[in-house]
Design brief:
Oligomer: heterodimer
Number of helices of chain B: 9
Radius of gyration of chain A: 21 Å
Number of strands of chain A: 12
Number of helices of chain A: 7
Structural class of chain A: alpha+beta
């Protein structure tokens, strides 16, 4: 590594530790400030929160994650809306809020993303002729791994697929796959008993814009949301992708990953599947759970 | 940066969820302390600034925009406070002529929030020798991960000025830290 890079690395990663007692004291001050502020202001009415959310395009998308996750949860569980109100730590909103949001969403034209979770694979989406931007289509396949998934590990080794840890996120690793490896991975994953296809949404978004999808696991606990933005870097099909995953309470970010247009990206997310309501249940899921997310990009030029 | 987790945290925080505030604190306290020590070079002042930034943040849920960049917001708040303190220090120094800038005079006292490491000490010593505008750009870009355009907006200067400050700052740091980074 060149000295200049070493220096940037030193500046970026210079280690720093904190005193745990002081940490607690400072956070107590922060909490006191919050409580004082709450006392000073009367509670914000729920309707006002929703008006705030629906006024802003980005917040609408954020809220859309909740709704999509909820929708997929219903679809997979086949249960009523009430069934999952208590099943996730991610959707910490009341049922009334969710209904209000859902009714707002129905009135909204889905112009920046299309969610096709759990629907059969569709033909590539046709670009909207009114939009003169490059369209990015991202096919996402999300698999949950059961047990040790040793066959998959063998497969990855045989194929020479090495998952590199993502900077700053030890629980996330990734690999670029060429088209042949991508096809073989999909064939293997769909046939392997240790992998279960949780969802296969497709995101259609304009270049440079952000799309969001989310899903619940079959065990109704493990919610995953993905936000994606893509930029075409050159005419040879080099694409810069920005990923952001949310799994339970953990976020994973990859702000800039360059891939060729015909490559796919495979992510491995390790998480803790916590079961709040059944913490003493012996049948609760194992503490470590692994999700693989394969993302294939298709660039549809304007016109 | 998409930072979907941050958007969720802001949304939950604005809805009154204290756990979201705890997560924001845990997630960004180290980054903010690192940046603050680089900017002001005095541990106690850096700790006070970060403390104040979080306290003010906790009181500002009403004003926060859901679509904003949380980390950028916190760093900008911190940089503004640090800049004000530097200005006040400069005024003070102008009054008491001959007094030089403090360079980390505090030792590792048990009640300190930051536990100082040797690397942090050396880096911040070098940082303290940069003119403040250069120091701020280098720290906000490299440690804060902020884009030049965003830094330019926060400092109310042109992007060319910010890039020049970054280049000159890095050159000077390179010469100051030459022996260490080539290891």
């Amino acid at each position: 590594m060149r000295p200049a890079e070493n220096m940037k690395k030193l500046i970026k990663n210079v280690p720093i530790k904190t005193n745990a007692e002081r940490d607690k004291k400072v956070f107590d001050d922060v909490l006191n400030a919050l409580e004082k502020s709450e006392k000073d202001h009367s509670a914000v009415p729920q309707s006002r929160i929703w008006r705030t959310i629906m006024r802003n395009r980005i917040t609408k998308l954020t809220a859309a994650v909740f709704f999509i996750a909820a929708f997929v949860g219903v679809y997979q569980l086949g249960g009523p809306l009430e069934a999952f109100a208590h099943t996730t730590r991610v959707v910490r909103t009341t049922l009334a809020d969710l209904r209000e949001f859902a009714s707002n969403l129905r009135e909204r034209k889905p112009d920046r993303y299309i969610d096709e979770s759990n629907l059969p694979p569709a033909e590539p989406a046709r670009p909207n002729p009114d939009i003169q931007y490059t369209i990015i289509s991202a096919r996402v396949q999300e698999f949950s791994a059961v047990g040790g998934h040793y066959d998959l590990l063998d497969f990855l080794e045989t194929e020479g697929i090495e998952l590199d840890p993502a900077a700053g996120y030890p629980d996330m690793s990734y690999a670029r796959l060429d088209p042949d490896k991508t096809e073989r991975f999909i064939d293997f994953a769909l046939a392997d008993d240790d992998l279960k296809l949780r969802s296969s949404p497709r995101l259609i978004l304009q270049e440079g814009h952000e799309g969001t999808v989310g899903s619940f696991g079959a065990e109704d606990q493990d919610a995953v949301a993905l936000a994606l933005a893509a930029t075409v870097l050159d005419d040879d099909g080099l694409i810069e992708l920005s990923f952001s995953f949310l799994r339970g309470q953990s976020g994973f970010e990859m702000p800039s990953l360059e891939i060729k247009a015909d490559e796919a990206v495979l992510f491995r997310l390790v998480g803790t599947a916590e079961n709040e309501d059944n913490s003493n249940d012996e049948d609760a899921p194992d503490s470590d759970s692994v999700i693989f997310v394969l993302i294939r990009i298709e660039v549809i030029p304007p016109g | 940066m998409l930072m979907i987790e941050d958007k969720l945290l802001i949304w939950r925080f604005k809805s009154g969820d204290k756990a979201a505030l705890a997560r924001i604190y845990e997630k960004y306290k180290i980054d903010l302390l690192r940046i603050a020590t680089g900017l002001v070079n005095e541990m106690s002042v850096a700790e006070d600034i970060v403390h104040d930034v979080f306290v003010t943040f906790a009181q500002s849920s009403e004003k926060l925009k859901l679509g904003g960049n949380l980390k950028g917001y916190l760093i900008t708040c911190l940089a503004n406070r640090a800049r004000n303190i530097k200005r006040a220090q400069q005024r003070q120094q102008a009054i008491s002529l001959g007094e030089t800038e403090h360079v980390i005079p505090d030792s590792n006292m048990p009640e300190r929030w930051i536990i100082y490491g040797e690397e942090l000490y050396r880096l911040n010593n070098a940082m303290s020798q940069l003119p403040y505008p250069q120091r701020e750009v280098v720290i906000m870009h490299l440690q804060g991960g902020m884009k030049f355009k965003v830094i330019a907006e926060s400092q109310n200067v042109s992007i060319n000025t910010v890039q020049s400050r970054y280049r000159y700052g890095l050159d000077k740091l390179r010469s100051l830290l030459n022996g260490e980074v080539e290891k």
